[in-house]
Amino acid sequence: AMQHLQQITDSGQAVEEEGEPRPDYNLETAPVDWTSGSASDHYEVISEIARGKFSAVLKAIDKKNDRVVVAKYFDLGLDSSDNIDGEFAALRSLRHERIAGLLAAYRSSNEATFILEKLQGADVLTYLASKHEYTEQTVATIVSQILDGLQYLHWRNLCHLDLQPDNVVMCGLRSVQIKLVDLGSAHRVTKLGTKVPVVGHPDYISPEVLNEELAFPQSDIWSVGVLTYVMLSGTLPFKGEDEHETRQNISFVRYRFEYLFQELSQEGNRFVMLIFKRHPNKRPSAEECHENRWLLPTDSMIKKRERAVFLGNRLREYSEKYHSEKSHSAQVNKLGKSLIKSHSIQEELLIAP
């Protein structure tokens, strides 16, 4: 099954759709409202997908129709109600094929739960790291789809502000299709700049957010650049010997090109250079990134990207380190729920509906 999956996804070519329901765009004007009560009355939890400091992401089944969903559970005794309300406000009216949609929201005196559409379960890093090799075309396909989602968010005057591997998740198993998840750090940001708190993963955060300056839509584009660099090198661009050196590297845009895979096209190199600018207004918008030569769907560029093949071992090493650090930071979670972990592609191939 994995060999078949690799054959049909490496080129990024179109394949038969998996029958996923289209987003209900009517919900943009009639957004989801809170439902009083506990989600456990309507959904049965199967396993744990991920865990953060204040929440747990669980796989669950709708008791009425056996539909598999994702339940994001918050203990109101641990998390600030303002944070939950902020994420709910961002999610409730968003409908786009590149953003995991909110289906329902439940709230009681001591807990809150978001019910979201079920994705394949593997983040983009786990997905690529599971392969012996992958192509530049696959990376370009993923980056283009991330930009699709960001273009919609920015049109709605929202910035994600926490783009990192865990928040870019594969939709299914038969083609390279992703969705953005976890808008817990999202804020309304205008083109003129908006003050936001310091949020996001320390390795993926933009210099202006890190230094408590005004955030812009292009603050998300910086994080796209970091994720692109990681997929094209298997390592982080700004990681220092310690936290202070990492902050300095980000603030002064100090990174090295020699870590990028030698097989990478010149266009891929230039795309990364274009994004890593200290001042957000000098970075391209999501729309301008789409127009970049590296992402053009022309026959010549597709063939060039398909010829560039990268071995997955370096990315695999980073993936293991990244997820280990994430697991360590989640250990402070006091939710008290203990569930079977479900995140491997191999497992999802067997149990995905």
Automatic annotation (TrEMBL):
Biased composition (Polar residues): 1-12
GO molecular function list: ATP binding; protein serine/threonine kinase activity
InterPro entries tied to this protein: Kinase-like_dom_sf, Prot_kinase_dom
PANTHER family noted in UniProt: SERINE/THREONINE-PROTEIN KINASE 17, TRIO RHO GUANINE NUCLEOTIDE EXCHANGE FACTOR
Protein name: Protein kinase domain-containing protein
Region feature (Disordered): 1-31
An individual GO BP term: positive regulation of apoptotic process
UniProt domain Protein kinase: residue ranges: 43-295
Protein keywords: ATP-binding, Kinase, Nucleotide-binding, Serine/threonine-protein kinase, Transferase
Assigned GO CC terms: nucleus
